[in-house]
User: Which sequence fits this backbone?
């Protein structure tokens, strides 16, 4: 069921998949929406109450005053607070959603009891033999003030919803042909809606600019992840062209207590092009954390 949740920071659009037990909140990546979780959210609802949200300016959530990561972080915090006083949540974030989940967990450890980071946006390492240069250049253009917004307008205007969906899946998945049809159809419908939303032309670029500014402060990033208290699983596709495996390995070396699973034959969004294997990894880890918590 899709609806809006009023918060002190403004309304948040959510897809509520139901379920009983611990709360799981799913956060999409840059340019994504709740549709990114359709292939796995119903199965995750067997483990607890599952909700996927749209970040401000993405999907169907209206924007806030700006697109800084801090603004997105505060919107997630306000949403979690609205779910109930004293409640804690498993945050599952993909790409930029993973970086935001880290920011939330560092800022408000009282709200987060577990983290699942799926190809989380991580400062690049230089030199990096695994860096995919064509993608790195495109992301740099996207993050450049002015130029990124011009590219966003061009991309939206020159492509039909079908083309937007196909090109996006080619960027974020390893094998687009494996993406379930229901995900493709929902993504196409969302693209058709967003072509008519004025902020869709600049939301991605302005958020990308904020990400680049965070990347320019790697020491700040390290200090942030060291503050995270929640048990954490990191999942990444070995063929990820957007977030290099080298960067994620560096991050996990900084947090040796975190669990890292690198999935072969998948890319930046394993929940979309390898959903069954992704679910196996995540459900097994969550069960293990639960067992350790009760001393089994």
Assistant:
């Amino acid at each position: 069921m899709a609806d809006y949740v009023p918060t002190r920071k403004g309304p948040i659009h959510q897809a509520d998949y139901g379920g009983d037990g611990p709360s799981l909140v799913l956060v999409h990546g840059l340019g994504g929406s709740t549709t990114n979780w359709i292939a796995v959210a119903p199965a995750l609802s067997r483990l607890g109450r599952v909700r996927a949200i749209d970040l401000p300016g993405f999907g169907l959530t209206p924007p806030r005053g700006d697109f800084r990561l801090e603004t997105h972080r505060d919107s997630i915090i306000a949403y979690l607070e609205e779910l109930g006083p004293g409640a804690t949540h498993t945050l599952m974030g993909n790409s930029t959603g993973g970086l935001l989940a880290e920011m939330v967990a560092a800022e408000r450890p009282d709200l987060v009891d577990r983290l699942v980071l799926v190809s989380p946006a991580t400062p690049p390492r230089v030199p990096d033999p695994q860096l995919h240069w064509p993608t790195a250049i495109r992301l740099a253009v996207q993050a450049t003030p002015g130029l990124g917004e011009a590219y966003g307008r061009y991309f939206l205007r020159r492509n039909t919803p079908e083309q937007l969906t196909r090109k996006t899946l080619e960027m974020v998945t390893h094998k687009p042909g494996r993406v379930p049809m229901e995900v493709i159809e929902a993504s196409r419908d969302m693209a058709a809606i967003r072509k008519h939303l004025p902020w869709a032309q600049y939301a991605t670029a302005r958020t990308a600019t904020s990400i680049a500014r965070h990347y320019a402060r790697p020491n700040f990033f390290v200090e942030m992840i060291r503050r995270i208290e929640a048990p954490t699983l990191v999942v990444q596709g070995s063929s990820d062209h957007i977030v290099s495996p080298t960067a994620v390995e560096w991050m996990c070396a900084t947090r040796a207590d975190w669990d890292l699973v690198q999935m072969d034959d998948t890319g930046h969004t394993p929940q979309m092009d390898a959903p069954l294997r992704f679910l196996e990894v995540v459900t097994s880890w969550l069960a293990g954390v639960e067992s350790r918590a009760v001393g089994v």
Remarks:
- The radius of gyration is 18 Å.
- Residues 143 and 213 are 9 Å apart (CA to CA).
